[in-house]
Structure formats: structure tokens, C-alpha cells
């Protein structure tokens, strides 16, 4: 099916014509010409059956005894083919908020995910005749696309070499919109935007994953501290030797480095020990 334009005329002219026909019928009735009076009344009734009203941002799908004739997209009062059925289809932009879906990411971790889909109908014929209840079709296909996209990526990663659901929300949303558009073309629906609204680990593993994130953060922080401590120890030894302040042999150099690393890397504040020599 493909949308096409149906025969239509200005509805106000049709109303005026009907009024004129009814007036002529009344005149013929008083002239005792019942045949013409009835004929004009029937003509007015036939024209009246073709009058329809289309609201702004709506479309009227016109069918005649099961055959699709076309669509009226303009808003206002119109006269179309008599004895036809007109079904109204909204062309307005609408939102669909999916419920929280429980799926497994590419690593098998259970997660909760939800999204909002912004869409509108661009082909009324496909929306009415190619699918049954296109609103429900959009909901089911949206949830299916969300599940499929969620299973292609990990929730999070710690090597920063691949796309993740949490760290690349923009890329994931674009792929979701593209896949959803491919699914909804058959229904004449255009996907304007698709955005993730909820993303979290499932409750049964949320605590374990939080501990994993905390451990990774601690390890990363420790690596930075050790790198800084080594640099500071090297700089301290270099400055002491360059200024001819003291001469350090290998044993004292190792001891100094050890003390500096312990002082810098330790979680707790170090307590200095002052050597005052031996008392006699």
C-alpha cells in the first residue's frame, strides 16, 4: 500500500449546493411535483454522505466498499466520494515510553533498560492497511529493538576499547533509532528520536558490580599514586646528589627510596623517627 490523494472538493460549496437542492425540492413539493422533489432530496442526501471534516494534523483514509481510494491530508470541510467510509489517522508527533526491560548484555550480565521513542505517521495507507493497530505495532517493535541493541554491547568496560551502553549513550541511541526505523517502515511510521531513559544493573548483581567498580577505581588510583611516588623519589635523590648535599651509596639510596615510597603510598599519615645518636 502507498498513500495517494483522493478526490475532494470544498465542503462549504457542497453544503451550499445541498441547501439549494433542498430548497428546490421544497419548491417542487409545493408545485405538487413529487417526483422531482424526491429526486432533489435524494441528490442532496447523496452529496451529504460525502461530506467529512478533517482536523489539523490528521488524515482521513477513504475507502469505498473495501477499496482504498485515497487520503485527505488538508484540514477543513471537504466533499469526497459519496457512500465512503473515512477513518481518521493522527499525523501528530507522539511519544512511547517503554517499560523497564530486563535483558542480558553481551557479557551475559542482567541489566534493566528503558527508552523513549518519538515518532509520527508519514504514510496513512501503510499505517491502516499494512499492519493491524499500528500503535501496538510500534510498541512491540520498539521493545524488540531495545532488547536487540542491549544484547550487542556490554553495560560497561574497563579497558576503554569498545562501545558500552553506559559510556556511549549517543551512539547506542542512534543505532536504536536506525534499527527501529527499519522495523517501522512497513507501518508508514517515521522515528524522529530514540533515547535511553533508564539503564542499570539488575538488582541481583547490582551490589557485586558496585564492588567491582569500586575495586577498579582503587586500583587505578593506586597506580597513579605509585607512578607519582616513584617520580618524586627519583627527583629527590637527583636534587640531593646534584647539590652536593650528601653522597649516597647504593645501600643508603635504596633505604631513602624505600622510606619515601612508604611515606607517599601509605594510606595513613607516616610518623617521623628522629635519630639523635647514641647517649653515653
Automatic annotation (TrEMBL):
Residue intervals passing through the bilayer: 12-30, 36-54
Superkingdom of origin: Bacteria
SMART domains in alphabetical order: PHB
Keywords per UniProt: Membrane, Transmembrane, Transmembrane helix
Pfam families: Band_7
Gene3D superfamilies in UniProt: Band 7 domain
Band domain location: 49-213
Protein name (database record): Band 7 domain-containing protein
Organism lineage: Bacteria, Bacillati, Bacillota, Bacilli, Bacillales
Amino acid at each position: 500500500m502507498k498513500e495517494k490523494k483522493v478526490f475532494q472538493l470544498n465542503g462549504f460549496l457542497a453544503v451550499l449546493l445541498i441547501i439549494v437542492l433542498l430548497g428546490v425540492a421544497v419548491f417542487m413539493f409545493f408545485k405538487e411535483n413529487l417526483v422531482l422533489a424526491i429526486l432533489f432530496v435524494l441528490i442532496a442526501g447523496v452529496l451529504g454522505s460525502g461530506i467529512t471534516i478533517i482536523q489539523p494534523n490528521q488524515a482521513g483514509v477513504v475507502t469505498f466498499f473495501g477499496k482504498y481510494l485515497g487520503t485527505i491530508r488538508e484540514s477543513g470541510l471537504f466533499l469526497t466520494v459519496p457512500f465512503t467510509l473515512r477513518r481518521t489517522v493522527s499525523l501528530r508527533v507522539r511519544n512511547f515510553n517503554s517499560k523497564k526491560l530486563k535483558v542480558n548484555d553481551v557479557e551475559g550480565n542482567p541489566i534493566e533498560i528503558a527508552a523513549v521513542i518519538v515518532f509520527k505517521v508519514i504514510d496513512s495507507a501503510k499505517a491502516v492497511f499494512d499492519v493491524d493497530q499500528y500503535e501496538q505495532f510500534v510498541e512491540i517493535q520498539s521493545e524488540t529493538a531495545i532488547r536487540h541493541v542491549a544484547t550487542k554491547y556490554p553495560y560497561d568496560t574497563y579497558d576503554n576499547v569498545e562501545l558500552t551502553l553506559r559510556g556511549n549513550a549517543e551512539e547506542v541511541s542512534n543505532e536504536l533509532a536506525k534499527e527501529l526505523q527499519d522495523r517501522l517502515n512497513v507501518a508508514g511510521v517515521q522515528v524522529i528520536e530514540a533515547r535511553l531513559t533508564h539503564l542499570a544493573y539488575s538488582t541481583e548483581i547490582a551490589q557485586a558490580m558496585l564492588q567491582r567498580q569500586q575495586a577498579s577505581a582503587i586500583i587505578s588510583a593506586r597506580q597513579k599514586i605509585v607512578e607519582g611516588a616513584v617520580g618524586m623519589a627519583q627527583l629527590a635523590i637527583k636534587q640531593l646528589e646534584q647539590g652536593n648535599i650528601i653522597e649516597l651509596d647504593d645501600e643508603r639510596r635504596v633505604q631513602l627510596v624505600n622510606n619515601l615510597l612508604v611515606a607517599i603510598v601509605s594510606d595513613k599519615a607516616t610518623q617521623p623517627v628522629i635519630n639523635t645518636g647514641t647517649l653515653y
